[in-house]
Design a protein that fits this description.
Order of helices and strands: HHHHHHHHHHH
Radius of gyration: 17 Å
């Protein structure tokens, strides 16, 4: 089958699941996230038309890890959790951000690793860390969001405020804002 590179990531991953099965797609996506080669065809499944650039020598070699993490939004196996946790420490901020999104979507319990991202240099990573803690953090993790309420970036301040409200409701505990 020819990979439909113009389809959305959700559509491509759904088709890949239909062909390979969800556990296989999730394992191969986790392998990509770990930096392991999964072949050109799988790269096209997860990266679509953008993967052609990597296959043609694009020097931004973190994209396969980003696409591997993103595929885990659509295909999951619990064994992929370790790769996601490891990806939170990746040098490329896009990988860290996408792994944070997977943690939110899959409600993976890695609050200590997420807390470390609250001081990330990249605002988008700090914002996704706030969203993640809202869904997975305990009180001792969530209160560490308070400094983000005065972050220089408005998107981070808003994410922190929403996260504190969400966590307060989820934990059924007042958290000062």
């Amino acid at each position: 089958m020819t990979v439909p590179i113009e389809a959305s990531p959700a559509e491509r991953i759904a088709m890949a699941i239909g062909l390979l099965g969800e556990p296989v797609v999730a394992e191969r996506a986790a392998a990509l996230l770990r930096g392991e080669d999964q072949g050109d065809e799988f790269l096209l499944w997860v990266g679509g038309r953008h993967a052609q650039g990597v296959l043609n020598g694009d020097p931004a070699m973190y994209w396969p890890q980003v696409w591997g993490a993103r595929a885990l939004l659509y295909a999951w196996d619990d064994r992929a959790g370790a790769a996601v946790e490891h990806g939170l420490g990746h040098d490329a901020w896009r990988v860290r951000e996408m792994c944070g999104k997977v943690i939110v979507a899959r409600e993976l319990a890695y609050p200590d690793a997420i807390v470390a991202l609250l001081s990330d240099d990249v605002p988008r990573v700090r914002a996704v860390a706030a969203r993640a803690l809202a869904s997975i953090g305990e009180y001792e993790h969530v209160v560490q969001l308070q400094p983000l309420l005065v972050d220089p970036e408005v998107m981070v301040r808003r994410a922190a405020e929403r996260a504190l409200h969400t966590a307060s409701t989820r934990l059924d505990r007042q958290i000062d804002i």
